[in-house]
Amino acid sequence: MKHLLSVDDLSTDEILQLFETAADMHDVQSREVKKLPALRGRTIVNMFFEDSTRTRSSFEIAGKWLSADVINVSAKGSSTSKGESLRDTVLTVCAMGVDGLVIRHPASGAAVQVSQWVDASVVNAGDGTHEHPTQALLDAYTLQRHLGSLEGRHVAIIGDLTHSRVFRSNVQCLTRLGARVTVVAPPTLMPSGIAAWSAAAGFETSYDVDAVLPDADAVMMLRVQRERMSGAYFPSAREYTVGYGLTRGRLALLKPDVPICHPGPMNRGLEIAADAADAAQSVVLEQVSSGLAVRMAVLYHLLAGELQGGVA
Amino acid sequence: MPAPEEAVTAPTGQQPGRADRTVLDGRDISRALTRISHELLERNKGATDLVLLGLHTRGVPLARRIADKIATVEGAPVAVGELDVTMYRDDLRSQPTRRAHKTALPPGGIDRKVVVLVDDVLFSGRTIRAALDALADLGRPSAVRLAVLVDRGHRELPIRADHVGKNLPSALAERVSVRLSEVDGTDGVTIS
User: Fold this and answer.
1) Do A276 and A297 sit in the same domain of this protein?
2) Which of A259, A305, B75, B189 lies deepest, with the highest CB count within 10 Å?
3) Within its chain, how far is the Cα of A259 from the centroid?
4) Which domain holds residue A35?
5) Which domain CATH number covers A88?
6) Is the pLDDT of residue B3 over 60?
């Protein structure tokens, strides 16, 4: 495993292996000395061309806890704002002897493109509306901790599908692990061409939240991504909430103890009500701590061993 | 799954073919562990503040066996845990990524305790060096001791064991294989 660009790059075995490593890494969070020496002497650059709190700090802490040197570069305040191209920025940074490059970019396919320019291992931390593999891994890892195996379990993914890279990566990851996935969105936020994709990948689509919730073993709410919306996808926020939000009323439709995920940041009161976000079965904060463990596992697998090597 | 450090080809204690020689059988192993248990108790003047930490993979069941024997002698359970040193190895870079294992400390931790590291074979000493580094990140024991089932020599670092099941002079090219029923289905130490 040289890069992590898409969930598709991973075999099912590799996913499960990452989860095992993540479980080992999880314990480090409760230690007094939160440090493992595995990546001592390696340098990781976080390049974020889009705003981020949890993903960037998560990758930064993950790298630091593994003893790597971590540097953050963001678009604001970098030479990008002086008009430097992505290629030049990336090559400049990599000329400093970087081993790992974690990149988030608003253009779909940016991470793949970058991986062809550099020798460093590239981790896709979100490219446009395309993929966000570590988010999918941490979601599946979190659900696995709650549900045991995902085999045959029903996961409902609800919200702004059109603009969601989290959904695209998650569908691949969850179906690979044997889960039954139903994705729910208003017709305007259902990606075009989803009928062919869902038939090929083996997941279901629905416009009706209330029909899907009673059967779900896990619920994943997606953020309404207003910053990516150029047109009017729904008449009003209120109307979206009534039709597709996880409200207090809909909470009652769920089977007891069904875990509720949200990749964050949450629009409270829009796609998820405070009652649901703060419910006992909400795993939103657990997703964050799992995310750290999963990202440590990813960095370990990419950077600890002989470069280009698989896992023994 | 990680490959065992010493590949095992035959399921039984007695090796077919080649020049495999059984050095310890199941009863020898049991006797050696009994002796080590008594030595530990004698040296420590009882089981108070004793923590046995098994090193993955085969040190873990060995630590449990010693703990059981001590519990029988003393009539009280002794703290036992497992330690994974993968992240602390000095050869991480020179081979494909190794699978890490779980580190599990007993509830009381290791601070101010007498920690006994337990492993199957003491060879170069590099695993023990890694284990000492790992311990430093986990706490501050009052003392650290080392118990091994087999000491085969060829140290590359200034490290020695406090309790040894069997000293086994070996040539560098020879292979010492420890098999334990918890991991391999059978007990035995062979040299080939």
Assistant:
1) no
2) B189
3) 17
4) 7-131+288-303
5) 3.40.50.1370
6) no
A31, burial (CB in 10 Å: exposed 0-12, middle 13-18, buried 19+): middle
Residue A104 is a catalytic residue: yes
Residues A94 and A155 in one domain: no
The pLDDT-based confidence of B18 (bands split at 50, 70, 90) is low
CATH class (in words) of the domain with range B26-169: alpha beta
B91 — contact with chain A (CB < 8 Å)? no
Question: Chain A 265-304, CB below 8 Å of chain B: which residues?
Answer: 300-301, 304
Active site residue A35: no
A311 falls within a domain: no
**For range A259-269, the mean pLDDT:** 94
pLDDT tens digits for range A49-64: 998 889 999 999 999 9
- State the average pLDDT for chain B: 89
In the 3-class helix/strand/coil scheme, how is B97-161 assigned residue by residue? ECCCCCCECCCCCCCCCEEEEEEEEECCCHHHHHHHHHHHHHCCCCEEEEEEEEECCCCCCCCCC
Q: Which of A17, A31, A305 sits opposite B95 (nearest CB)?
A: A305
Hey, which residues 122-151 in chain B have their CB within 8 Å of chain A?
133, 137-139
